[in-house]
Amino acid sequence: PAYLVQELIEGTTIEKLAENRGGKLPPEIAVLIASLVADALAAAHARGVIHRDVKPENVMIERTGTTARVVLTDFGVAHVSGLESMTATGAMVGSPAYMAPEQARGHDIGAPADVWAIGVLLYRLSTGQYPFPGRDAFQVIASIARGTYARPSQLEARVGPGLEAIIARCLKQPLPERYPDAVALARDLREEMRVVGLEDAGPVLR
Would you say 14 and 126 are in contact if contact means Cβ atoms under 8 Å apart? Predict the structure, then answer.
């Protein structure tokens, strides 16, 4: 019989981590975590895999000795380029609050859809709120379609201009204005980490 072997991750999700700290994290820690998620996505994208469901519940932190690592989990709805999808044409896949506009419309998606999700993740971790809120999935999708949201610095004064610019580029509706891939996003996130003195990620994360 077929079987699946999975790694045991002994740690917590960043969703629970934020919940235990009043619903959000210091913006610089959000940047650190997002940079490592972007690295994971870059590795997946290089192999033609689009995650499609990046959210705090699917990101775990595991302590390992004197350091720690971020693990991107749940590739259960991932799309593999070149393989026929098991999803019905036009069907929505993923969590509405983190869906890129093209994903919410059921269109073909690529790396920029995962970039959008990191933008929402950064916004949520830094401010404790969603950029595109709603009482149900339909309201959330309508909010995403409108594309307007409060600047994160209006909700959390500790969000600096560098992080705010990164989030804004992640959440651009037109694809050419968004980060083209997770590699470009990770590069800007690392520069933001350098500015605030968090270049040695592992011990800081632990």
Answer: no
